Amino acid sequence: xxxxxxxxxxxxxxxxxxxxxxxxxxxxxxxxxxxxxxxxxxxxxxxxxxxxxxxxxxxxxxxxxxxxxxxxxxxxxxxxxxxxxxxxxxxxxxxxxxxxxxxxxxxxxxxxxxxxxxxxxxxxxxxxxxxxxxxxxxxxxxxxxxxxxxxxxxxxx
Length: 157
Ligand code: CTP
Known about the structure:
Bound molecules: cytidine-5'-triphosphate
Low-confidence stretches: none
Distance between the termini: 91 Å
CATH topology of the largest domain: Rossmann fold
């Protein structure tokens, strides 16, 4: 049995944010190596998600994080057991939004759920950006309305 402790985790990691960084930092502190399964674009579609960044971009970003040893694609729900064996993972860990969901993996490794960073998620960022777009549209609409009023008043002269 190898002395090296390996931690494995999974996620989409779209619009990489501080919640992701803090989770990866804490995961890396649980062992010597951190292996991250990044959901493929096809698997995201199965989960009803569509990421802003492609799998290749998300994988490149996560792999560049200093807490991460290696990334690989996550194609389906069933591959976790095989991955744990393949990467000789001692700890399977996720944020606690997944609490209890992967307890069956306790048969082959330690399963850990870490608390999420409060008040940030990819969904929050997407919603905030969509709101900015709507505010911008309101401003453009109001400016156009002003221009129309000016043109109307000129044509009445
Ligand atoms: N995570 C976290 N703290 C956050 C957001 C995410 O610890 N504030 C963790 C999740 O628990 C998960 C990993 O980061 O283990 C990847 O989560 P992901 O679903 O990619 O990020 P979210 O920001 O939760 O994305 P979404 O809003 O699309 O669910």
